[in-house]
Specification:
This protein has 824 residues and is of the alpha/beta class. The chain folds into 7 domains: 6-109, PriA, 3(prime) DNA-binding domain (GIY-YIG endonuclease), CATH 3.40.1440.60; 116-175; 186-269, no CATH class; 287-462, Rossmann fold (3-Layer(aba) Sandwich); 479-522 and 597-718, Rossmann fold (3-Layer(aba) Sandwich); 526-583, no CATH class; 729-821, Alpha-Beta Plaits, CATH 3.30.70. 34% of the residues lie in helices and 22% in strands. The strands form 8 sheets. The chain has a 7-stranded parallel β-sheet, sandwiched between helices. Strands 19-29-28-20-27-26 form a 6-stranded parallel β-sheet, sandwiched between helices. Strands 2-1-4-3-5 form a 5-stranded antiparallel β-sheet. The structure holds a DNA duplex (12 and 12 nucleotides). Residues 555-723 form the Helicase C-terminal domain.
DNA sequence: AGCACGCCGACT
DNA sequence: GTCGGCGTGCTC
């Protein structure tokens, strides 16, 4: 290292462009290094942990540098591959490095200070304090560890900051910035014999407890559990298992501790389970799977990416497992991406059977401490303890891999891989392809219904294509039948929301003790309420959407901002009390089912019923164990779950998906219907699918019936080409937001005009989206379609220039402009 | 994102 | 006159 002043450029966890330079004080020069976290103060008083991106000796000229306060890490927590990856994400998706940092690192590793306020005992008032000041003092005197938020709450004041400032000047209070490390190692409470007791004294001690039966029992259990005197090395006994085993309480245990017979000690532990799962050999592949794996390997010889296009239930997971095994044997890491947590449950069990504790899981329902532990585990890259396979969702692409050999992206077509809010708006599938490139690893995409873009890449020879068209154990593809809603309604044969066809089939299935899955792409009870006299519909007061009626809590809820209100007793416009619900969601289906099939055991699976960590697993478990007859759900039921006893799948309304105003609506409908149909079918019997629709002749529905992916692909491709959409063109969506709609329109028109100078007819809009106001901000979109072969970097450069020009105009300064590259 | 500063209307 | 609203600008 050079003599003289050293400076470090930091990434701070803030939505700000650029890096921030700090000086490295002499005593930290040996510790601070690229990839480590350092503590700095930023702005007035706030303290953050930044990541050192680079170190240099060019003193900044335009401002005064601050010192780095401390260095947090012994070894870097970000490796050079991650830095390259972050740079790529930031550049490609046009987001700040700070935003990438925020998305990439678990919160427990991002320290942020909190202001602690306390009353000064030695304070004597020179002048009278105002009422609000007195109020604050009272709150401070009555509690300790007060921060701004708790003070605001306790005092009921809107803005406490000016008051704090005044009290600070008067010397009545003091404030302190304290950094909170949210992550703590988990401590486990163990029990052992008190140090003073020798093994041969135990019998004596037991006798001494003759008059304290409960205590004696605990000691007995302890001796049993610890195997003292029997085993060479006694077993560790946790307090929890001891109490459970002896059926007693902690107060009885405490009595023994007080008598100095037992003692309590703590050991920190990983929250993660390293217990040895039973390791089973690989299952042998059937001939179709074996052929597929052979083709995948051949594909990888010449290409870095392969698509495994395998019909539902074709046994793709088993193929993945074989490929993972090969990588682990070579000492490489594997990342196995899934679109959502929901799917991990079934697959984690299968992976653990083969790879035991080499498998790690990472998803958003983990608490923060668990996420920190997974992160650290991979970062340490310890051959005995570190995970070799990570099963994770979107955000696991940011884990500190050092040696990836293979990335598997299961259900590759799923749009949950695209992050929308907050920035960075990355697509995990596309980002993973770059990640693989950085690691010189291979990528395997797997799905029964490839994204049009992905299939097009195969057809162009960029990816290898492997087809697996046989279902596992030769289960037949389900028989798909249509039920014409129009006709049933005209003939008045509908039973509520069920066509006679669907109704009959549900009945038959129930009689045969078979299971049914019903799918509706809409949660809640009814999409909206409507006044029968005047047509008034309740809307969200912050957003421009109608409110969805939820019956379970009798609330009208906005699915955009979460705002909830009581449904109005009468129409707010004409005061009629004749409010009716329109359309139907999963909740209403569940209700109707209970009326028509009172004997059936019914459950609903959607966002509302699976909020807790285990709710989803419990539902799946119940359904698998045949404790349920009918499962009603949203897209959740379409995703990769394999059940053995489902003979019937019903799609209640195919039209709502097909008519969605988006260029991907048809592709998406095909994928949903094909995926949910795939849930039907069992070992010895062909499954049945009933699609209720007003348009039985719709080409997408016809493709679903004929299981004709390629036909659907070709139609879509010609439409995409004609209407200039991906994969022929690259999309960038520009969103402008402002509270004043008029100003917003002016700004958007101006930006669109200036973009047209360069991009001409490739600029579409500005157009207000269907929902043109969210949380009091009006929204407009401008869509840019760029030719695939032109340089995206140059387009983005021009885009930024024009956006900056717009912001340079005084009255448009406050207009928010954000980009979404490859929007979904 | 926070947070400070400064300007303005509307209350004791 | 002060309190609290919000628009604006800055942070190495």
């Amino acid at each position: 290292m050079n003599a003289g002043s050293l400076f470090a450029d930091l990434i701070l966890p803030l939505p700000l462009a650029g890096l921030f330079t700090y000086s490295i004080p002499w005593e930290l020069q040996s510790k601070v290094a690229i990839g480590k976290r350092v503590v700095v103060s930023f702005g007035g008083k706030k303290i953050y942990s930044g990541i050192v991106k680079n170190i240099h000796n060019n003193p900044p000229e335009d401002y005064e540098v601050k010192d780095i306060i401390a260095c947090l890490d012994e070894t870097p927590i970000i490796n050079h591959l991650q830095f390259s990856f972050w740079d790529w994400i930031s550049d490609y998706y046009q987001s700040n490095l700070g935003d990438v940092y925020k998305a990439a690192i678990p919160a427990g590793l991002k320290l942020e200070s909190q202001t602690k306020i306390s009353y000064r005992e030695d304070f004597t008032a020179e002048a009278r304090l105002s009422k609000t000041e007195e109020l604050i003092i009272t709150v401070l005197k009555s509690s300790k560890d007060v921060n701004i938020q708790t003070l605001t709450q306790a005092s009921g004041l809107k803005n406490v900051l000016p008051q704090i400032k005044k009290l600070l000047e008067k010397g009545a209070i003091e404030v302190e910035e304290r950094i909170l490390s949210s992550y703590k190692e988990k401590q486990i409470k163990y029990v052992r014999l008190h140090q003073s007791i020798k093994e041969d004294e135990i019998g004596e001690k037991l006798n001494s407890l003759n008059r304290a039966k409960k205590q004696q029992e605990i000691l007995f259990s302890f001796l049993n559990l610890s195997k003292i005197g029997i085993a060479e090395v006694p077993e560790k006994v946790t307090a929890t298992e001891l109490l459970l085993n002896s059926d007693s309480t902690s107060s009885i245990l405490k009595a023994l501790v007080d008598k100095q017979i037992l003692e309590i000690y703590f050991e920190s532990t990983d929250r993660l389970d390293f217990s040895d799962a039973e390791i089973n050999p690989l299952k042998e592949l059937n001939q179709h799977q074996a052929q597929a794996i052979k083709e995948i390997r051949e594909g990888f010889e010449s290409k870095n990416t392969s698509l495994l296009h395998g019909v539902t239930s074709s046994g793709k997971t088993e193929i993945y497992i074989h490929l993972i095994k090969e990588q682990i044997d070579q000492g490489k890491q594997v990342l196995y991406l899934l679109p959502e947590i929901a799917l991990t449950t079934q697959i984690i069990t299968r992976l653990k059977h083969v790879f035991g504790n080499k498998v790690g899981v990472y998803h958003s329902k983990f608490n923060d401490a668990e996420r920190v532990e997974v992160y650290n585990n991979i970062q340490q890259n310890n051959p005995d303890k570190s995970y070799q396979v990570i099963l994770g969702v979107r955000s696991s692409i940011f884990l500190p891999f050092s040696n990836l050999g293979l990335i598997i992206i299961d259900e590759e077509h799923e749009n949950t891989y695209k992050q929308f809010d907050p920035a960075p708006r990355y697509h995990a599938r596309d980002a993973a392809l770059f990640l693989a490139h950085l690691h010189k690893a291979k990528t395997l995409l797997g799905t029964a219904t490839p994204a049009i873009e992905t299939y097009a890449n195969c057809k162009q020879g960029k990816y290898a294509l492997v087809e697996l068209m046989h279902r596992y154990q030769d289960i037949k593809m389900p028989e798909i039948l249509l039920a014409d809603l129009k006709e049933a309604k005209r003939k008045k044969r509908m039973k509520s929301i069920f066509t006679p066809e669907l109704y009959e089939e549900i009945n038959t299935a129930l009689e045969k003790k078979e299971q049914v899955i019903l799918f509706q792409n809409r949660r809640g009870y009814a999409p909206y309420l409507e006044c029968k006299s005047c047509g008034w519909v309740p809307h969200c007061e912050n957003c421009s959407v109608s409110l969805t009626y939820h019956q379970y809590n009798n609330q009208l809820t906005c699915h955009y901002c979460g705002h909830s209100t009581q449904p109005p007793q009468s129409c707010m416009q004409c005061e009629s009390t004749n409010m009716v619900d329109k359309g139907f969601g999963t909740e209403k289906i569940e209700d109707e089912l209970r009326i028509f099939f009172p004997q059936a055991r019914i459950a609903r699976m959607d966002l509302d019923t699976t909020r807790s960590k285990t709710a989803y697993e419990k539902l799946i478990y119940k359904f698998e164990n045949h404790e349920l007859d009918i499962l009603v759900g949203t897209q959740m039921v379409s995703k990769g779950l394999d059940f053995d006893h489902v003979s019937l799948v019903g799609i209640l309304n195919a039209d709502s998906m097909l008519n969605f105003p988006d260029f991907r609506a048809h592709e998406r409908s095909y994928q949903l219907m094909a995926q949910v149909s795939g849930r039907a079918g069992r070992k010895n019997k062909q499954g049945k699918v009933i699609i209720q629709t007003h348009e039985p002749k719709h080409p997408i529905i016809q493709s679903v019936i004929q299981n004709d992916y390629v036909g659907m692909y070709q139609t879509q491709m010609s439409e995409r080409e004609e209407f200039i959409y991906p994969p022929f063109y690259r999309l960038i969506n520009i969103t402008l937001k402002h509270k004043n709609n008029g100003l917003l329109t002016q700004a958007a028109n101006m930006l669109a005009q200036s973009l047209r100078k360069t991009f001409g007819i490739r600029v579409f809009g500005p157009q207000a989206p269907v929902i043109n106001r969210i949380q009091n901000y009006y929204i407009v979109n401008i869509l840019l379609k760029i030719e695939k072969k032109s340089s995206p970097a140059k387009a983005k450069w021009i885009l930024n220039r024009e956006a900056n020009n717009l912001k340079a105009i005084e009255r448009f300064k406050m207009v928010m402009v954000q980009f979404d590259v490859d929007p979904m």
